[in-house]
Design a protein that fits this description.
heterodimer, A: 425 residues, alpha/beta, FAD/NAD(P)-binding domain, 3 domains, five-stranded parallel beta sheet, 8 helices, B: 211 residues, mainly alpha, Fumarate Reductase Iron-sulfur Protein, Chain B, domain 2, 2 domains, 12 helices, 0% strand, globular, binds iron/sulfur cluster
């Protein structure tokens, strides 16, 4: 693992989500040496946690499969999972990146047969399902995890359970003595593809995400639809496990608001439009989706998608930023506000509320050990002064998958130019 | 005088009410920033009692509904709870705009007739400016009798206990009937108010100056 060769002609990509995978592949396929670092035990990032993509409504497995194949076939690309950057120094064409590797305790002999997991019993919150469900301490992070290798939760180390898992493995793939280590890598250019996190809805006091079980956010809703998810693919609401058929979507939950995130997160309108189609997929005309919005931003060619959703009789639109959410005695969320088309005051009861929470950068770039230009919203600004450091995808701005992939390709090209200069090409 | 100012404003702004508000109403320059999300209207505790909640008022201003806005009772309903300001995603000082609109409508003589908030506001101002300190006793009594003598006695009787409690807590003194307390430099205070009125008049004059 530690025998990774890196020179100042190497490109390091930090973050193995859709943007990082794209940037790494695009650069590696031009013949450059690339190292892709990912903090989680698997690649694919948040995209793997989606049920479907818009606008084509295909499952993420599809795009991921192609990328995984490209990675396997490319000799110039080294993938390191459970790797976090702990320091970075130097300048354009000559960086030193310190990377901390946390042990997986399972090596590449693993065939993903799952015998080790059968020997384990203790359960932990399942991060992959945004803690909506549980997973064992010996686990495959998700069905399509890449690499397809089990992981042993560090909290299990030193327990008889870990020993039982080791004993159950027929392939000698489990090594409980693995230790955390820090390695140093050289690089000519560094691409940050560190992605995003959903805005913390607890901060939006009037919407009661912190108080009402049946107010969830848009990424959690994705997990409810997944057949491998915490509800086995049923739209069951958290309070009582009842099927949610009448669902409200609140747009700009935390975006475009001086009190929270000032920027438009650009994907959440489309995400909610897409999610109404999940409801229709489940229940046909028995389902009911209501979108509360300021204005619908289905940018450029997505307008067609919006029109199709408008034509769906199960979906209605209310032009209003919801003022507050309350809960009735049966645990149903009740939405209050004024419909600005006609100025009608409403108090609408739903089974479940989905907050279309926005995007914020997952990394505090201002706290990096190396200085780069960061804008007011916390995203990396494109700036000459950043030298050989570039942002790919959501590290640069809020955007959807489609734009993130385009953006990552551009970032790869910029990084390639830097290492070309180093090589004197 | 009010009607003359009103006339001058109508002529000056010729159907551009947004501009009139921007230039003459306190914090009126914020009106154009409203994105019509409706969260202020939905958050107003008195909202159900307004003819036109704030976000509708802002739309009406842009739609040139001058008379309707300025003679409406809506902005007089604002209790300054600041809920809307706290929630407005664009940071509009909505409460202040409401008071600004109310004040402006009064200044140019379009305020609604028999609006209790307006009456109380005037009474409070007259009471305050006399001595530089509010005379609670006179203000309270004035308020009770605002709808006539018989009504006043009735209200005063029903509020007897409140009055007694205020006296006990030294929030009000019966001696206030005989003149009452005031600021030490009363002449200076009045000169200051006069100057402020002059400045205000000059500003309005500037805006209505047709030359
Ligand atoms: S994409 Fe839509 S929901 Fe998201 S912040 Fe922009 S306008 Fe609001
Ligand atoms: S809350 Fe602010 S932006 Fe929204 S309608 Fe009211 S004034 Fe306009």
């Amino acid at each position: 693992m530690t025998a990774v060769v890196a020179t100042n002609q190497t490109i390091i990509v930090v973050g193995g989500g859709i943007s990082g995978m794209t940037a790494a592949l695009e650069a590696a396929e031009t013949g450059k040496q690339v190292i892709l670092l990912e903090k989680r035990p698997y690649l694919g990032g948040r995209v793997t946690q989606l049920y479907k993509y818009f606008p084509k409504m295909c499952h993420p497995t599809c795009g991921q499969e192609i990328n995984q194949r490209r990675i396997k076939m490319n000799k110039n690309l080294t993938v390191i999972t459970q790797a976090e950057v702990s320091n970075i120094s130097g300048g354009k064409g000559d960086y030193t990146v310190s990377v901390t590797l946390t042990p997986r305790y399972v090596n590449s002999n693993c065939t993903a047969c799952g015998d080790c997991a059968k020997a384990a019993t203790t359960e932990f919150d399942d991060e992959f399902n945004y803690n909506l469900g549980k997973r064992k301490g010996v686990y495959l992070p998700n069905a399509m995890a890449f690499p397809q290798q089990y992981v042993i939760d560090a909290r299990l180390i030193g327990t008889p359970e870990a020993d039982a898992a080791k004993a159950a493995c027929k392939y000698g793939a489990i090594d409980l003595d693995e230790k955390e280590e820090t390695i140093e890598l050289k690089a000519g250019a560094v691409v940050f593809a560190t992605g995003w996190k959903p805005y913390d809805a607890n901060k939006i006091q009037p919407y009661g995400y912190d108080r009402f079980a049946n107010v969830i956010n848009n990424v959690e809703f994705e997990r409810l639809m997944d057949p491998h998810g915490p509800t086995g693919g049923k739209l069951l609401r958290p309070s009582d496990g009842k099927e949610a058929k009448n669902i409200a979507f609140i747009q700009c939950a935390g975006s475009r608001d001086r009190n929270y995130l000032k920027h438009c997160s650009r994907f959440c309108c489309m995400a909610s439009l897409k999610q109404t189609q999940y409801v229709t997929e489940k229940y046909g005309t028995d389902g009911k989706s209501t979108i509360y919005y300021i204005d619908i931003r289905s940018i450029d060619r997505f307008e067609d998608f919006y029109r199709n959703v408008q034509a769906d009789p199960s979906v209605s639109f209310i032009k209003s930023k919801v003022a507050k959410v309350e809960q009735d005695k049966d645990g149903n969320p009740v939405l209050h506000g004024v419909n600005t088309e006609g100025y009608h005051r409403y108090a609408n009861t739903h089974d479940l509320v989905v907050l279309a929470t926005g995007m914020e950068p997952s990394v505090d770039f201002k706290g990096l050990p190396i200085k780069i230009a960061v804008n007011e919203e916390g995203f990396i600004e494109h700036d000459e002064a950043n030298g050989g450091i570039f942002a790919a995808g959501v590290a640069a701005d809020a955007m959807d998958v489609n734009r993130a992939v385009q953006h990552a390709t551009a970032a790869a090209l910029r990084a390639v130019q830097v290492v070309n200069q180093v090589a004197g090409a | 005088m009010s009607t003359a100012v009103n006339q001058a404003m109508v002529e000056k702004y010729k159907g551009n009410f947004l501009k009139e508000v921007t230039e003459n109403v306190e914090e009126g320059n914020w009106v154009k920033m409203c994105m019509q999300c409706g969260v202020c209207s939905g958050s107003c505790p008195l909202g159900p009692h307004w003819d036109h909640p704030p976000q509708e008022i802002f739309m009406m201003i842009r739609a040139n509904k001058r008379e309707e806005v300025l003679s409406s009772t809506s902005m007089w309903m604002c209790t300054s709870c600041y809920n809307c300001i706290a929630r407005c995603p664009r940071g509009l000082p909505i409460t202040h705009i409401m008071h600004g609109l109310a004040h402006y409508s009064k200044r140019i003589g379009l305020k609604p007739k028999n609006q209790p908030t307006e009456k109380f506001g005037q009474m409070f101002w007259d009471n305050l400016t006399k001595k530089g300190r509010v005379n609670e006793l006179k203000l309270g009594l004035g308020l009770y009798f605002k709808d006539g003598f018989a009504e006043g006695v009735k209200v005063a009787m029903s509020k007897q206990k409140l009055g007694m409690n205020m006296m006990k807590a030294k929030r009000m003194s019966p001696m206030e009937m005989l003149g009452g307390h005031g600021v030490s430099d009363l002449a200076g205070f009045h000169a200051m108010l006069k100057k402020a009125e002059e400045l205000e008049a000059a500003r309005v004059g500037e805006n209505t100056d047709k030359k």
